[in-house]
Amino acid sequence: MSTHIEETLVLVKPDGVERNLTGEILRRIEAKGYTIVDVRMMRADRELLVAHYAEHEGKPFFEPLVEFMGSGPIVAVRLRGERVIEGFRSLAGATDPTTAAPGTIRGDLARDWGAAVQQNLVHGSDASESAARELTLWFPQS
């Protein structure tokens, strides 16, 4: 049986930190069997956020997203585990909290009023290439 151990970036967004859900989100991650390699709480500056969301620059939601992500503390988490990129995204649930399945982080915990889909508690890298790029941005000394 082959293993596919990888690392990914998870961000607990400002809405998750403000609502004191960081512990519950980390509990769910650990309960799934993933290893927290590094974790830090920080306020991201515009330069970091623009680099993180570079592929969305020019899209209508780019500026509101950067503004929201800079509005409060973020908890950045370096995770390791078997197929952790795919697994965390499944654990997180659909981007839109209204359609996120019960049992997922967003389905159970995210609020679904029209504030904007960016207020959905967590971010998880979507592929190994983006995980590598994002981990370098958020954990530059690692």
Automatic annotation (TrEMBL):
SMART domains referenced in this protein's UniProt entry, alphabetically: NDK
UniProt domain Nucleoside diphosphate kinase-like: residue ranges: 5-142
Family: Belongs to the NDK family.
Keywords: ATP-binding, Kinase, Magnesium, Metal-binding, Nucleotide metabolism, Nucleotide-binding, Transferase
The protein's Enzyme Commission number: 2.7.4.6
Protein name: Nucleoside diphosphate kinase
Pfam (any one): NDK
CDD domains found in the cross-reference section: NDPk_I
Uppermost EC category: transferase
Phylogenetic classification of the source organism: unclassified sequences, metagenomes, ecological metagenomes
Matching HAMAP family: NDP_kinase
Reported cofactor(s): Mg(2+)
One GO process term, biological-process aspect: GTP biosynthetic process
GO molecular function terms attached to this record: ATP binding; metal ion binding; nucleoside diphosphate kinase activity
